[in-house]
Design a protein that fits this description.
By secondary structure, the protein is mainly alpha-helical. The chain contains five helices and no strands. Helix 3 (54-61) crosses helix 4 (65-72) and helix 3 (54-61) crosses helix 5 (80-89). The longest helix has 25 residues, at 25-49. The radius of gyration is 17 Å and the shape is elongated. It starts with 10 loop residues before the first helix and ends in a 12-residue tail after the last helix. 11% of the residues are buried.
Length: 101
């Protein structure tokens, strides 16, 4: 589906057309891949900002460079505990908040 024609779109409809309705296996898989990619981008950006190589980050968390590369490319999504170890190794502080109510 081509969407670069500068028209305003309802992207829920675009996603439905490309990946199926929410909850379908295709849509769930696409969303999981998108989250893995986004997680990898967060890690890569933080690593580069910290001026640390993939090899050094891997050493700091007791892993290998190949694993970090796969995470950054979105091919592997780290467990949440590993994500926190990575962020800690990069000196990134993670905050969360819960809605009031």
């Amino acid at each position: 589906m081509h969407t670069n024609d500068h028209q305003i779109r309802d992207y829920d409809l675009v996603l439905d057309a490309k990946f199926g309705k929410p909850g379908t296996p295709e849509r769930v898989q696409a969303e999981e891949e998108a989250y893995a990619f986004y997680t990898g981008q967060i890690i890569e950006d933080a690593r580069k900002k910290a001026k640390i190589t993939q090899a050094e980050l891997a050493r700091r968390i007791g892993s290998n460079r190949s694993y970090i590369s796969h995470v950054e490319k979105g091919l592997t999504e780290p467990r949440i505990s590993t994500f926190y170890r990575i962020m800690n190794a990069l000196g990134v502080r993670i905050e969360y908040s819960m809605p009031l109510g």
